[in-house]
Amino acid sequence: MSEQSLYTVLGIGLFWLGLYRALTVNALLIKIISFNVAGAGTFMILIASAYHDTLPPDAIPHAIVLTGIVVSVATSALAILLALRSQSSSTTKTSANDHHR
Amino acid sequence: MPNEPFSIYIGGWQPPLGIRLSVTGAGLLLTGFSCFLFLLISFFARSQASASFPRTFWPLLLSLQTGITGLFFTHDLFNAYIFLEITGICSVGLVALSPGDKSYKTAFNYLSVNIVGSLCFLFGVALIYRTYGVLDFIMLDAAIDSAHVSPIAYLSVFMIITGLVVKSALAPLHGWLPEVHGSAMPLVSALLSGLVVKCGIYLFFVLWWTTFSSLITPPLIWVLSLCGAAGIIIGTIRALQADHLKQMAAYSTVAQIGYLFLFMPIISQSEQLSTEIFAGFLLFIVAHGLAKTTLFLAVGYLKSVHNCVTPSSLAGFAQQQPLIVGAIAVSAISLIGLPPSGGFTAKWALLSFHASAGSWALFTTILVGSILSAVCFFNIMIHAISAPPAPEYGETIITNGLLQQRVIIVLLSVLTVLSGFCWPLFAHFLRWGAT
Asked: Which residue ranges traverse the bilayer (chain A) (predicted)?
């Protein structure tokens, strides 16, 4: 098995692992991290496909992966913010209820 | 009009290295439509009490418009992913702005659905790039036709389709839509139902008919028709059971998405027929966009002014608010598919395609779905019309803003009717730049 196909297979595996965990877990932070793992798997496939044994590596996957990383950083930031806010709003509600009792 | 699509190469780089944006008749039509809808919704938003509006609303709205416009023009798979992400993130932001305790939780769930969809899409794109080495739609089409089709190509097409289906809430994966569209602000739900959901479907349709047409296998067509039919039935029945006007509108969107997906399995032999199918598909998008925007805005208006959210609380409103109830009736007519409306023309086209293709099971499903949705909407109308006039709540003072909102709602309902007569115009538009 060549190095390129090894990394492709690993990338596919990583993607499915991340996706599976993201769909089955309830904890918000773990979900966000699993999305990132799945994204990393996709990026690994792309990086592996840039490899050429004689020519210099293909430039397009690099551009794609860079853009993809930017997008995933932005979505993770948004997801973490939303998770924090939704938890803080639910905890303030429960603490208010406790106070009430 | 020129017959060639007008292409822009970003930075002057030609594909496969650069990205091609291509202005086709279909893209132009949908862009014009979406920009018009955005304009009306902006006016509607401006006329609402601006105190409850955070300042981030406007940047998010404009970025959403950017993403949607880009999706209609892009001819590059990865670029399409970027525009899908822009659209998705902006709509999540708009949902999070809605008042209420649960809006952050809803927005988080919506964001997770969006991320799952885009991850599947990106995974498919990565596999496509690995197999064929190009991402431009036309070059990809040529590459797929000539090359021997590998199993990886099937997997990648399946993943891209799954990603788009998740984003556009086709039947088994529709669970997120009513929650999101039901809890957002009315004008945000109008945008989400009217336009955002359609972007994924439009991209799906373009890929299905051009680039991936040689990779479509009969089982895939089967599964899609089944999902579309299930969407129609499930969406309409849940809309019947719902006891909240916005939930009803949201479930009706699920059903309408089912109809839209039933445009995919029609097999066309001739160029003429495929143009007609495309025209019917676009008309369906436009008609549903107009009708659903009218419905959501009218329901939102009733909720904000008279605080009524259930069908039974509408009792007697036909006398009190004839224009708004009339607008709801017009949008209901279009959503059911009764003449004269855009929904009727589009659904008639869909039915005739299925009749000529001989797929009677789908034909019957469409009819049954229409009858069920008629039951659902007539229920609302009966509540609004037949009950005695509601007790006077005291004369509501018609401010400038409310007047503007009413004008927009009525204008949209008029357009819903008019769009039914635009069928020849659509076909004419599509002949330009058909690839």
From this structure: 6-23, 28-51, 63-84
Question: Where in chain A are the domains?
Answer: 3-100
Task: Compute CA B186 distance to the chain's CA centroid, rounded to the nearest angstrom.
Answer: 16
List the structure tokens of A48: 């592996």
Asked if A61's CB is within 8 angstroms of B112's CB, the reply is no
**Peptide bond preceding B16 in cis form (omega within 30 of 0):** yes
Distance CA B189, CA B250 (A): 8
- Is the Cβ pair B89, A75 closer than 8 Å? yes
Instruction: Note the ipTM here.
Output: 0.91
DSSP A1-39: --HHHHHHHHHHHHHHHHHHHHHH---HHHHHHHHHHHH
Contact B315, B63 (CB under 8 A): no
CB contacts, 8 Å: A18 with chain B: 119
Q: Name which residue leads in pLDDT, A97 or B326.
A: B326
Give the SS3 label for residue B6: strand
Q: What's the mean pLDDT when you consider all of chain B?
A: 86
A83 touches chain B (CB under 8 A): yes
User: Does the pLDDT at position B339 exceed 90?
Assistant: no
CB spacing of B78 vs A64 below 8 angstroms: yes
Is the pLDDT at A83 greater than 60, yes or no? yes
Cβ <8 Å between A49 and B129: yes
Contacts of B104 in chain A (CB under 8 A): 82, 85-86, 89
Closest residue of chain B to A28, computed from CA coordinates: B108
Closest residue on chain A to B85 (Cα): A71
Average pLDDT rounded to a whole number, residues B201-226:
86
Tell me what the mean pLDDT of segment B14-26 comes to: 85
**Residue bearing the bigger pLDDT, B54 or B191:** B191
Whether residue A86 and residue B105 make contact (CB cut-off 8 A), yes or no, is yes
Q: Which residues pair with B8 in a beta bridge?
A: B21
B291 in Cβ contact with B342 (< 8 Å): yes
- Nearest-Cα residue of chain A relative to residue B131: A49
- The CATH number of A3-100 is which of 3.10.450, 1.10.287, 2.60.120, 2.40.128? 1.10.287
What's the length of chain A?
101
Alpha carbon B384 to chain centroid distance?
27
CB under 8 Å to B54, separation ≥6 — which residues?
Answer: B97
Chains A, B: CB pairs < 8 Å: 86
Nearest-CA distance from B343 to chain A in Å? 36
Q: Which of B122, B211, B204, B118 is nearest to B161 (CA)?
A: B204
Please list the alpha-helical segments (H only) found in B149-270. 151-168, 176-183, 186-191, 197-206, 218-241, 245-261
Q: Are B248 and B400 in contact (CB under 8 A)?
A: no
The sign of the dihedral angle between the CA atoms of A35, A37, A40, A45 is: negative
Q: Average pLDDT in the A58-80 region?
A: 92
